[in-house]
């Protein structure tokens, strides 16, 4: 295979992709080679917005051939390749540039927009499922069950996921609160964290100074720490937290940043609820009684 590296392929993940293609080239069928050619010629910016179906069309094959080829190259699927290609963009690509790329990718057609959102959502959830470390998930559930109080922290858009998880846990009978402050006032919320608590930090793409202080405070008092984050953040903080769960993020902006976090939050909350069905049912009954008293 000719090595047709262009200026826009100076992306570590694409360089690795091309290496894998060279290593497996002789093993591939003509259809898989066509997919490889398309993958080799594409820019990293464009790859982030393409679906398997569109790559199949570009290579005159099919989306099934695209997926099989990627799996032969050692990837779980297109979502894993995109996740690796996206890493440099999390820190170097300006927000307005990503917005322009997103608008160009969708073409402005509502049906096309719908298809892209659904496709990327399914890809990200499948990627989450394939890469979920079940031992870490189970350890997180155990920590939550043993906690005196669950303290949940998330910044930016992830605050929505933090609030959502808090609400689910309360409805299942667990004592939980969400940190709603930042900066100077954050110190007041951190004072309440104790050694029997578990702090859940939601920081998919990066961790700001406030988040680092939350982790430092939890460590200082001996609280358990569950981190929901991207793999590179989880690896960097592996020794600072009790358990780190890889939650894949997206830089395309086509799907919500907290999509996979919400799915993970649901899985954690439901596992906690199932572990103590009596408590869950009792809390549900109490909640319903209170709603009726309020006229609902």
Automatic annotation (TrEMBL):
According to UniProt, the name of this protein is: MurR/RpiR family transcriptional regulator
Q: Pfam families, per this entry?
A: SIS
Where the record annotates domain SIS, the positions are: 140-278
Transmembrane parts of this sequence: none
Any one GO biological process: carbohydrate derivative metabolic process
Output one GO MF annotation.
carbohydrate derivative binding
Judging by the UniProt lineage, the source's domain of life is: Bacteria
Supply the InterPro entries for this chain.
Homeodomain-like_sf, HTH_RpiR, RpiR-like, SIS_dom, SIS_dom_sf, WH-like_DNA-bd_sf
PROSITE patterns per the UniProt record, alphabetical: HTH_RPIR, SIS
Domain spans labelled HTH rpiR-type? 15-92
